[in-house]
């Protein structure tokens, strides 16, 4: 079966199912990267499409992000707010506003404090994003030479701090993060899979290396799509070019969950994802 048929079949299943699940990364997937993270608003049309999907009442919409969970709602502006798994799955914010997060072990917290002090000693604190259970350094605002030098310095400085502690260093598009090693986006996906059961159509859309855990957790159970302006090597099933093909996919999902004649939900020509072997 060619991939175009698979995506059409998947959206047909969404149209027929009483409930489906759409899991989405935020930065780089729903919104272009921004040096000012508070200004990282979604691509035009994305929030409106997600609101229509949410309003149908037939899709469990979930954001899975490296941000703190409460940072997402002000940027998306959906009503009611969505379920958000923040800090790469470490933090869960439910639509009713309750937030769940495990306690960070004391050893890990002390090591993160050491990493923060190291950044201050190196005069790099202005590039840091301090989050519960993690610290991220962003170099997207720097030129290529400066970014490469910063990456090397941070990794050399942080490796001895993280070594022997329940921490991991995870590179992402435009930076590196030291974080508590107990959870990742794949754990969030695994939890949601258990909650929705085996018969609910489910898809995950993401762009970054941190989304690979989610792609792998979903495997052949659902639809996995890499969403970026340009492709990269990935375990996702296909690539959607952002923002055009992302918006088209969301529009088709919205139609699948709202049209009266469900047979028409997949009648339009699908997005043309690029198949990955």
What is the helix/strand order? HEHEHEEEHEEHEEHEHEEHE
Low-pLDDT residue spans:
260-270
User: What is the terminal separation in angstroms?
Assistant: 13 Å
Tally the helices.
Answer: 8
- Reported by name, the CATH topology of the largest domain is Rossmann fold
Strand content: 15-25%
| Level-2 CATH architecture of the largest domain | 3-Layer(aba) Sandwich
- In CATH, the homologous superfamily of the largest domain goes by the name HAD superfamily/HAD-like
pLDDT averaged residue by residue:
91
Radius of gyration: 19 Å
- Per the principal axes of the C-alpha atoms, what is the gross shape? globular
| Structural class by helix and strand composition | alpha/beta
Helicity range: 25-40%
Number of domains: 2
């Amino acid at each position: 079966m060619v991939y175009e048929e698979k995506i059409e079949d998947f959206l047909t299943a969404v149209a027929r199912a009483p409930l489906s699940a759409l899991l989405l990364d935020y930065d780089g997937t729903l919104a272009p990267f921004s040096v000012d993270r508070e200004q990282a608003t979604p691509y035009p049309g994305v929030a409106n499409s997600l609101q229509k999907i949410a309003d149908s009442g037939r899709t469990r919409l979930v954001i899975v992000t490296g941000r703190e969970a409460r940072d997402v709602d002000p940027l998306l502006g959906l009503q009611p707010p969505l379920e958000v798994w923040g800090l790469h799955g470490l933090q869960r914010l439910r639509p009713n506003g309750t937030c769940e997060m495990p306690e960070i072990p004391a050893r890990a917290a002390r090591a993160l404090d050491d990493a923060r002090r190291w950044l201050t000693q190196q005069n790099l604190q202005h590039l840091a994003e301090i989050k519960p259970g993690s610290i991220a350094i962003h170099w997207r605002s720097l030129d290529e030479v400066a970014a490469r030098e910063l990456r090397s310095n941070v990794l050399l400085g942080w490796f001895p701090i993280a070594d022997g502690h329940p921490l991991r260093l995870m590179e992402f598009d435009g930076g590196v993060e030291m974080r508590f090693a107990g959870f990742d986006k794949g754990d969030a996906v695994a939890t949601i899979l258990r909650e929705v059961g085996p018969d609910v159509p489910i898809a995950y859309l993401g762009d970054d290396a941190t989304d690979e855990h989610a792609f792998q957790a979903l495997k052949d159970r659902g639809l996995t799509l890499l969403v970026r302006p340009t492709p990269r090597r990935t375990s996702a099933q296909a690539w959607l070019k952002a923002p055009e093909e992302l918006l088209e996919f969301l529009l088709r999902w919205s139609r699948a969950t709202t049209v009266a004649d469900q047979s028409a939900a997949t009648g339009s020509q699908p997005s043309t994802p690029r198949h990955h072997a």
